[in-house]
Amino acid sequence: MLVWSTYLLADWVATVALSALLKAKKHDLNSELVVFWAPFLLLHLGGPHTISAYSLADNEIWLRYLFGLVIQVGVAIYVYIKFRTNSTLTYIAIPIFMAGITKYAERVWILRAASHKQFSNSVFSSPKGATTKSNGSTSSPLPQTLDDYLKHRKVIEGGESVHKAFCLFKMFKPLFSDLRLRIFRKLSNNLLSPFNSAEDAFTLVHIELGFLYDVLYTKATIMQEKVGLILRSICLLSTFAALIAFSITVGKSGYPREDISITYVLLGGAILLDIFSAISHALSSWTILWLTNPSKLVSKFACQRIVSWLVLRNAEKKGRVSMAQHSLIDYCLKVKTSKWTTILSVLDTEDIVGKLWWTTWEEVNWDLKKFIYSNLQEKFERYQNSDDENVFNYDLLQDILKERGDHVLQSYGLKVEFKWSINDVEFSHSILAWHIATFILFYDDHKRYSGGVLGSYCQISKLLSDYMMYLLLVQPLMLPKGIGRVRIKDTRVEVIRYYGDKSSSMSNKDAASALLPSGNELPLLSTESKSVLRDG
Question: Model's pTM, two decimal places?
Fold first, then answer.
């Protein structure tokens, strides 16, 4: 919430400040330094390198930012010309203008490149050395395994994981663009099985998603090009030159001390942000990727020492990995009605504050990682053991990936009994039904076996159930479209009505027992209700 507010306020404050300068009269300004601040507003509108967009929706409105670039630069130049004097500040402001326009233009370019259309187009761009077939697909002499790929690239020791993750990132780019993944069976068998353990698999996926995040939400990709490095250097040197020039000339002027302090803060802040961005990039996986390629600029020994330190640092920085948790029943039990919540519900109709407030975080432990990895391995082995070994069986792969638990139920002979909760309902309905069932069984087992310790599978079921509910409640865009929002709202209303005034003093174990069949009927809503408690 804090990051989101700061992200929105940064653009708003800069725009308002430029508007105020635009409306001001020349005789209203008490100091020439106020005009010197106009170029700094462009620097702030350009944003830091560590964040270019807060959400994917920001990338889709890059044309609005392009329009804003033209308008804001025009306003800044107009203010500069309108209030310029013969003082030295007029010339010191020029390098700040250059840096500000460059950073703002970089932001627009990155937003455009990360938009869905441009990102999808980049999937079909032919890499160097690739040949284009008549059907539009591309082919290149790729190695058959990731180990061969590393040998072919002559990757320096220490950066193997980063190169594997980057290779997989490029390979699976179509999936991030909602496009079909088309890859031959032999290639998929060799390239898609580089994992020796669950820890290895999660490490590679972590790095791979890091590359994806940088491409979609930061300016990291600009630093991979020589032009980007040159522009970054120009921005930093321009701001640093302006700081030195201002420090030399400010002593000879009679500017107010407050205005001088503000100017130093603006110059120092701009330089520190650029230095911080450069250090962050230097410590990232992109630097490891560059250093572990054969380079004539740095010796192989020096690269190995730097990479070893970076890999160790990134592993320590990774630390504990947490996953969001949200229990619908627990959420309903903690709801308290007051005049303040009534007012808040008018302003926050979707109860976003409440959902975020009652969201907790749990560590992704080794048992959970091993469980997920073993299930994925089982699916991969089923695909490998298919009848046709020479052709990429797309239909079989689709059937395996579309499974929503029916294969597990079938293995236990329960598919007929519980098919209605998986195959006969939409995805959001299935998540809600199994989430409530998991809640009931988990806490009922806790109540009945209070003296013992539940097995790891019980804990894993609860963790995954609460995580899926978090996605459905707080991050619905990550799941298939449906009427999940309506279904959750109706289910929540019925649960609150069912527990009534007892909810505030009721424990989770008692709440689970109350939902078990006992002859009491739930006070259902109208027949139009989409509650899971009505539909099952």
Answer: 0.80
